[in-house]
Request: fold
Amino acid sequence: MKKKYVLFTPLLVFSIALNACASESKRIEEVSFDEQTFGDFDGYYRHDISEYNLTEYPQCGVFGGYTDPARLPTPSMGTVNVLVVPVYFEDSDTFSKEDLKVLDKVYNADSKDTGWESLHSFYYKSSYGKLDFEATVVEPYNVGIKTAAFRNWENYSPTGKLAYKITKWLIDDKGMNLKKFDSNDDGYIDCLQMVYKYNEKTGDSDTFWAYTTMASASAAASATSSKKLPYKPEIYFWSRYSMIENDYYDINIDAHTLTHETGHALGLNDYYDYDRNKGDAPAGMCDMMDLNIGDHSAFSKMLLGWTSPYYVDGSKNEVTITLNSFAETGDFILLKDNWNGTPYDEYLTLSYFTPDLNNKQDSEMGYPEWQWDRGDYGVGGLYKKAGLALHHVDNRQIAYRQNYFGYARDINDLKYSYSTAHSNTQSQSVNVEESVKQWSWVTGSPYKQFALIAADKSNTLNESYAFWYLGNQNFLFSTPEYGGGASSFNIADYSHLFAEETKFDDGEDIAWSFEILEQNDDNITVKLTKNA
Reply:
């Protein structure tokens, strides 16, 4: 087994077929979130926020604000057809029959037939059966030029031009009807994924890496007769074939990069810090939209409409809640007095991490390249044991329209949202107050979109060499036998991990403490107490 090199693949934006195997399907269906009860409990209730997913509020996703109207993300519900195109150059290898079988498996196969998961099996599990990707792998496309020439093939985006050329080729030359790849009938392909082989000796790193982005107007104009296409490419993915067959697993098929990039197509941001020189890892790394490993977080799944929180409503000063495994059920708690009832606000989330389902293999194996010879810092993979993860989310949106510029004030403002205010990269996080004063964009805000609060009270994730601590069990809350960093939380002891100390970024008090009463491998019981 060779080392797995996890490649950081920031989203590029134009600015600053099979069902799961029977046992998997049955397990997911048994815990389907749709079967859980909504309504009032004792001091809290389950609040259905599925109507606020990114498909309904695309302005609030990663592509929001860059076009008018905002580009629709890949649908996050139902059966979604993915168009997969193998791409090669005049001076590169083409795709063999075996390569095409590998592509079909990495997209469509059951877990047992891959080294880790397929795109289909991961998202079927992650969504609790709500999202079923079915991929069609077409015949390989020859770009018709050599690798080195591709960079200058189009002034702005050679891959955008290629997306249009391929679409035209499929429709005009191959006679394909692409209707099934446009589930929302907007005239755009929901998700085009181009997997390429190239000449590594002449290919440059700026062009030949992995990213998800949108086909631009300039790319369309440079592709012959692109305006006549009945279906046009919109969101597309571009990645090397070698990331799939990377010699890491015994079954040499790895979908980690595909899975992360498809998260962008669904509308999710990266949660790592692009300013890698600082070494920050605000989200704690153990997340698909951070280090490309493990399952999606409660925050991500809420944005995609797959789960809804238990909301502590303040009617009682003490509330006790038992959370089941988040990976299996979607259970999580949302804490924030005066919450606006949508994912587009600021709040705390509590979810029970368990090393199973999409977390299982990344927890058991780890990654040798992230295991450091510096003592017992981390494990080079996901957490080995179960524990409660506490995250601080600041997903407030910027509303931008005539005579108003600032934070979205209520749900009706979201239709005007220009972009998500805060990022896990400080140089891209908008200082909204200063921007309003100057009536122009000012960045450098200390506020982060999605941050793990380490149970051991350490500030390690916001310091250099944070990656030494990947999978450090002390970051999770637990009872002592599970090895977590603490079994309780109160803001007085953790104020140094919040930009505004004892308050949320918006100035509201962090009004709740909690302690863990019981824990086993399947669930955890938490008592929440309103601060005096």
